[in-house]
Batch of 3 targets.
Target 1
Amino acid sequence: MPAEKAGLAGNSYARANQSLKFAESLDGAQTLSKSEARRAYTAAPSAPAAAGRTPLPAQTLAAVEQQLNAVEQQTRVVRGKSFFQNGAQWIDADAQKQKGAKPQRVQFASDEYFRLLAENTDAAQWLALGPNVQFSLGDKLYEVHE
């Protein structure tokens, strides 16, 4: 986000970041953050006379909208867990909190994969995210890979 530090634009950018930082629900936080980012953009000075700033190009709003949509596409809430896409891998936000924990690696579509699925039906929807998923289940950290 741009570096507006004061006024309506600065406040909106701060609220957009804060809504994500302190979120208890990803869906609501994303909606609020996106709304605040749009508000900040429209509040940003667009006339050269405004504090000696250069005008914002018309394409910038479209670019901001495209970035916000991209971030939204890279997040999922599945069965009570928030997942973020990092490259080809979906990572459970809870898994990121287990710093230093060594994940139990499971080959996608292997016998071990189907055993994990059969023994932990709660994980079915998480595993449905794709062949590269990292999630915590109980006190274990799993990493499904191709």
Target 2
Amino acid sequence: MPLLLDTGVLYALADADDDWHRRSRAYLATNRDVLLIPVTVVPEVCYLLRSRLGAVAESRFVQSVGDEELSLEPVMPRDFKRCTELLAKYPDIGFVDASVVAVAERLKLRTIATTDHRHFGSLRPAHLESFELVP
């Protein structure tokens, strides 16, 4: 089963000074699942990498997607509908997090790799009681 990654984990992997860097690297080093990211996560990761770490960090991330180290998952029209519902119910999460949840629900995924345990921990997905949040 694929492991769905949120923006925070992807950023933490690139920033050695990030509080989640070691945890994220250690967890993913032992994980053999396909690493899946909703396409909506890409611009957010790129923005954070470029604005905080520079163009080289952004370029490395883009290359990892191009080299298929990370698999992209499209956001379907039905996911956008679900995002609208999630944003109405959980206005603090924002569109990108809502899209991660919508993709996880559509694919029936139980686990999300995220540094945002506060937001994702408060969500109640449609297909299970709660997500398993890692690392």
Target 3
Amino acid sequence: MPATPDRALLRDYKELIGSLLFLQTGTFPEISWIISVLARYMTNAGEPHMAAAKRVLRYLQSRKKVPLQWCALDHALPGIIHGYADASSADIPDTRLSSIGYVFLVNGGAISWRSTKTPLQVLNAAEAEIVSLSSAAQECLFLRKLCIKMGFHQHRPTILYEDCEAAVALS
């Protein structure tokens, strides 16, 4: 019979994960993946889960003096959206579920990002990358429409970087 989780620990864990979710949404996209993994244990968290969440806090503490960058870079045109999409192979082998993600930048600053477990079963890495590209393309269309509504017209195609040659060839 599984042990009943400690109520106080569970409450503290939920509060901590909620705060970390807020932080990753607004300022720290690099913690998205680990927060999505930790959030899976909201109903049955234990000491190891709390220890992992506290490690994320220590990481954020080390980033305290690193400023958010919002300036034009040499390789990016000012005011132009560009993005990166990626996927990892199945992290749960029996289910064939992979992790997918993307990030979109303007002037070197991240404006939109996502990291999640794919809802689809895939057979190989190329299929996972295609799912990631599809998700990123949907977000790209939304961002371009948002820019137009805000008066920032994108006169060039949005560049979306992908590291899997098979996925690029299939798309």
